[in-house]
Amino acid sequence: MTSTTEQLSATTLLRFATAGSVDDGKSTLVGRLLHDSKSVLEDQLEAVERVSADRGQDAPDLALLTDGLRAEREQGITIDVAYRYFATARRRFILADTPGHVQYTRNMVTGASTAELAVVLVDARNGVVEQTRRHAAVAALLRVPHVVLAVNKMDLVGYEESVFAKIAEEFTTYASELGVPEITAIPISALAGDNVVEPSANMDWYGGPTVLEHLETVPVSHDLTTCPARFPVQYVIRPQTAEHPDYRGYAGQIASGVLRVGEAVTVLPSGKTSVIEGIDALGESVDIAWAPQSVTLRLADDIDISRGDLIAPAASTPATTQDVEATVCHVADQPLTVGARVLLKHTTRTVKAIVKDIPSKLTLDDLSQHPNPGQLVANDIGRVVVRTAEPLALDAYADSRRTGSFLLIDPADGTTLAAGMAGESFASKAETAVQDDEGWDF
């Protein structure tokens, strides 16, 4: 008979991302996970076996289960984020397999932005390299709560414990300095299947979990209800019909927290206050709603509210500001320079903005800040100060990944320039930005 704990765990969902340098074996690891956990359809496996045989390979190339793009298959590398969905008896998974090339680091930002766990692969022969540090830095910046160091290709170093221990110590020291809260190191061979799904008979010195066992048992907190409530307005509903002549509702998804009928709320950035008169969910009136439900709020007062406004409890409203200090991962090919005119998209709100200052750029080797770099280029991680045309209700990213994040967008063609995280970063505890409004349009 299934226990209550097992029944509950079967309903949980873990979002995780894989990252690592080129040829570290990410796609093979993912393919091994899917294959050994019986999450591959028979026709998929047959197709992989057929392609592998055409290439003259003796065994199926499990990396083909995730490398879906033709360019990836021809080059044997991952150049895009491949999302995969699978499940075991204990948990459901959404996996983002992200690229290893330096020029595709920006793709990891996409894959890890919603992840609760990141698997960083290291080739046991090469150890921790710059791209390993870059991926650890991105995971730390994105506040990914759990990081797994998978030391791969242990079969090629004779399954030596000393090799694993040295790499694990170096990575753990580095990631701890970044502020990663939990690091788990696992020695594996994705090709041979050691410690991926089944325990390895070749590493009896290792007594920890396999990769899948850790993925199935790591604590996952989806409880956004512990944070202050935030409701970005996505759409204003005004039917103005004979049946609903005076209906005015504000539709959107609750980003965090709990909202209740009768609760006093503040609308930002205007600062006007009202009371929640009703909450409509799935066509029915309810007394309470919580993140991440999509609902429609009805307020007691007629207030000028439009898309992009934020409704929050009057007792815990975020401060509004036009000066945004943040850490950004620059993802565009064109550089981000001081004085650049951009659009800043925060939840459902998009405003004009100017890059006021770029105080520093992160040097990944020693985690030092390179002052006044002048610009950020693709894959750079740096601090920026942005001045917006209108006030924004931003939380610190450390407090809320949903309402503390934003995008910088090129107003000319809509290209995403940078992914931003408001507030202090892991490497800026002693950093103070200079405030100077001279020469700005707003």
Question: Short description, anyone?
Answer:
This protein is α+β, with helices and mostly antiparallel strands and 442 residues long. Helix content is 19%, strand content 34%.
What does this molecule look like?
This protein is an alpha+beta fold and 442 residues long. It is 19% helix and 34% strand. Strand 12 and strand 13 form a beta hairpin. Helix 5 runs parallel beside helix 6 and helix 6 packs across helix 7. The longest helix is centred in the middle third of the chain and has 18 residues. It is globular. The protein starts with a helix and ends in a 20-residue tail after the last strand. The N terminus and C terminus are likely disordered.
Strand content: 25-35%
The helix content, as a percent range, equals 10-25%
Shape: globular
**CA radius of gyration:** 24 Å
Mean pLDDT: 83
End-to-end Cα distance, whole Å, is 66 Å
Question: From the helix content, strand content and strand pairing, which structural class follows?
Answer: alpha+beta
Largest sheet: 8 strands, antiparallel
Residue runs with pLDDT of under 50 for 5 or more positions: 1-10, 68-79, 427-442
Annotation field: number of helices: 8
**Count the strands?**
25
